[in-house]
Amino acid sequence: MFTFQQKAKYTLAMSLVIFLTACGDSKNSANKDTNDSLRLTLSSSDKTNQTTLHPPKLTLLGDQNITLTLGDKFQDPGAVAEDQEDGNLTDQITVTSDLNLSKIGEYTIQYSVIDSDKQKAHAERIVNIQKVHNPKDQIPIDSNIELGLEPGVLYYADPRPQEHGLNRVLRIDYNTMTYRAIPVPGNNPHSIDRAGESDKFYVRTQNSYSFDVVNFKDDSVKTVDLGDHKPRAIGAYNKKYNIQLLSGKDMPIVDVIDVTNDKVIATLGERRHYNKSEITSNAGAGSATGHALWFDEDHLGIIDRVNRVVRVYRVRKDKDGSLHFDLTSELSAGTAFHALERDRFPKTKEDTQIFYAMGEGDLTQNINPYVLELRFDPATGHLTRTGRTVWCSESNQKIDNITPTTHHAGVSPDGKYLVVPVTDGKVYIIDRASMKTLKVLPAHLGAAHIEFSAAKHLAIVTNHFSNILTIIDMDTLAVKKEIQIGFNHEFDPNDKHLFQPHFSYVSPDGKYYYTFATQDGNFLKIDLDSFEIVDKIHVGGAPEQAHS
Q: How does DSSP classify residue 131?
């Protein structure tokens, strides 16, 4: 095929050859030589001036190598094609691919185009689909267990004598069923959290304007003064910046602690002492904040129970190493929240960005406890509602002076269910896909915490104001067993001391459950096959909380 320019040159050359041949004398050797010379010259000129055929130029848009997380959505950035003779050929690009967003692997997207001279161009894009990383691998939230620094070891706080405790902290080795205790100078220790990845532990002494730092390796104890406020919870650790969050008990604030030196480097939120009348909640007005948390490694959250908002801050690091905290969003709450829960067994990236706010409810305004689904956008730092709420519709009245409220919840290991204990002794099983309540199961007063044995397909419910532990079969969504773990005390509606602790643990193999019969002062090992107490340690006091 010839272009317009090639055809013109060919026609001119042929015309000249014909013209010169017709004008010559065949008998004249000089003329013949001249004609032959002209023919040779023109023939060479024609070959030299023929246009070389150029293939199209195909250019990928976006990155040539793209990495996605299993279940991510993907929109092909595409490509553009340009040809020197034919112009823009983008709409003639052919795309083929073996991409499967639901399967881990390396995939190729192939782009090809052909011009009118049958010249071709080709390009490839590589897409890697990787497994979703568990948030606790990226954001260690509860550092005692989730960092895995001391397998087989648990830590508990034993509160002040007014709460039947001995004002100390405990280190328990559940492999050998032995313990050590260290008294602390602060008033009323209510939780103990590892200070990052160090040998130190932060002790939340909630009736002091300070917190204590304990080291079980050298038995050292020191006190860090907070000046004008008391501590609430101190468990949210960030490995990237080596900082830990301490929420306030009597102010709606969060202190940011440099784990290296135990110093407060920033205080975020509203630094003022609140009036308890400002909080109307089924959970009471005893704390200005809920549990501080990390949405991801660069964004932290404050649950302000006084103003009923959740504040999100982005961490920013200067060249000199100093940290700054910028407010990126505020989400208003209908009532106070106690905690924001997340999926601990995520299957997709979307799972890592969904949170469940534990709405405490307010019966003085006819508001039942509820669960509010939220979505966090790491690109903008915005926390927003998804528009889906589940009401704990059967939890609408006091029982034995216990007002129904949510506390903590858990997503089942298979990701299907959100299990929400409510303190009136009910457990709501919620289908995550539809955000509808499937069942309401009976538990006991003070139902507040949930742990799972993935191996045994069980959920274990802590009932704070009962001696009975509730076991749920996650296959049938029914109560499988009730276990009496305390024997020496009965619930007093006017006392409300805990019978079971905040936070208990399932062994890594899923076979055993470890908890306290708090008022008996017994640490228990429970077999999740026989549902029997198979071992115990008597430590005395009333240990009632592990990490924050």
A: P
